[in-house]
User: What shape does this take?
Amino acid sequence: MNIDKINIVKNSKPIKIWDLSILIFVVTVSVVAFFLLFNQKGAVVQLWIDGKYISDYNLNHTQSIELDVHLGHMCFSISDGKVFVVHADCDDQICVRMGEIDKVNQTIVCSPNNVILRIVGESDLDF
Amino acid sequence: MKKQYNITKRTVRIALFVALALVMYMVESLVPPVFAFAPGAKLGLANVVSLCALVLLGIVDSYLVVVLRCILAMFLVGNPTALMYSLPSSIFALSSMVLLYCFIFPKVSLMGISFLSAIVFNIVQLLVASWVVGNIYVVLYLPLMFLASAGAGLFVGLLSFFVIKHTPSNVYL
Ligand SMILES: [Zn+2]
Assistant: This one.
């Protein structure tokens, strides 16, 4: 421990110009990256379980899909080109809270059940 | 005699910080997880204690605090997978704090250190999450994660600043 540095902290303001620059830089980069990454409407949603590709579903077909997963049951719905998890037997419910996704590269993850829903575009369909 | 006294004081200090870190950890797990929009995304409240430990106790003791906190938290939560997330992310976050604190402090104050370490913390959490689910696309959450880190960093930085500002000198001397 360094007494001089502790005293610098004690005698300084909570935030300085460099801190503010870092904050503004980080926020700008992430907002720009967000719009660059997720700007294209998706065509198909892929389902992955345990790191393995299972199948895909067309986003233009309104449907509900029921799955049997590690911790029980899971249900996701497709309507108006959007995907969302309706119900999942998992402890954190992060997948349900992630809400609707509709852009290419957007992903819903349920890590307790190891389920991933990932949206891809027309051009990615050839695999 | 003097040395004995110092070791006792040091042990008590470390124990105190570990206890505080555990409380923060438990408080965070009680808060409704509004920040948990992605696997592994966390506010990282325990990082307040890491940062304060680094400044007030020094580098070696702050690593001890972090490792002990992660191991004890695993027993409190009763979930060994918690360690898999918390240990790497907390160690990397602390290491980034150490580097920044040693080399660019005081040009960048605790607030900036806290932002950058929050980013490191969340990146490592996300990498562990993508490894757990076996899909690297999970890292596409990074931009959102950076925004969350900015918020978390602001909070952790402010809290650490006021804690250190108001800690009487007989705690660390
Ligand atoms: Zn889930």
